[in-house]
Specification:
By secondary structure, the chain is of the alpha+beta class. The protein has a single domain, classed as 3-Layer(aba) Sandwich (Protein Transport Mog1p, Chain A). The chain is about 25% helix and about 45% strand. The protein has 3 helices and 9 strands; from the N terminus they run βββααββαββββ. Strand 7 and strand 8 form a beta hairpin. It is globular and about 45 Å long.
Length: about 180
């Protein structure tokens, strides 16, 4: 077993009818619990409210949203969102990266969150194809990292979005889909 999986737990992703290994500190949650954590935090930053609004928008358009929250820091999340089935290959990466960067620039003007692109990549495993886009987010002097994986797996397309303050993207969890 790879070292990355040593401190992990199996979690079921309902819309995939599958299990995935996530780091132990992440627990399955929901939008309501995340909102409660944001609202009850005395040190709540405006960024947390922006993140909450982003998740609410995702939930509005995709009822198949599953959220996992870091027990030690609620602003570290891993979310799974079912999307429309799309077939893609490595050639799409620069186009999608360009589109997302433009969308984030528009978002910057509304939210004040600045984005710096750190990585764009294509990942292919046995039954999985993924586009990986990683950004550094800066807001009011605070830094957070945002990684989006667009995944095609067994005739389904879905997003995995990782947000955290430690510059961890948990790419190893994609290996859960290599069976």
């Amino acid at each position: 077993m790879p070292r990355e999986f040593a401190d992990t737990e199996k979690h079921r992703i309902e819309f995939l009818n599958s299990y995935i290994l996530l780091p132990n500190q992440f627990k399955k949650s929901n939008l309501e619990e995340f909102e409660s954590l944001v609202n009850s935090d005395q040190t709540n930053s405006e960024y947390a409210s922006i993140q909450l609004n982003g998740l609410k928008n995702i939930k509005k358009y995709s009822p198949d949203l599953e959220i996992f929250i870091d027990k030690n820091n609620y602003s570290n999340t891993i979310s799974f969102e079912l999307g429309e089935t799309v077939e893609f290959d490595e050639g799409v990466v620069p186009y999608y990266s360009y589109l997302l960067e433009n969308q984030l620039q528009i978002s910057t003007s509304k939210t004040g969150i600045k984005y710096e692109s750190l990585e764009s990549d294509f990942i292919k495993l046995k039954y999985l194809k993924a586009i990986k886009l990683k950004f550094k987010q800066t807001f009011d002097g605070n830094v957070k990292y945002f990684t989006q994986y667009i995944i095609s797996y067994k005739l389904k397309t879905f997003n995995v979005i990782v947000t955290n303050i430690e510059d961890l993207d948990y790419q190893f969890i994609l290996q859960s889909f290599s069976n």
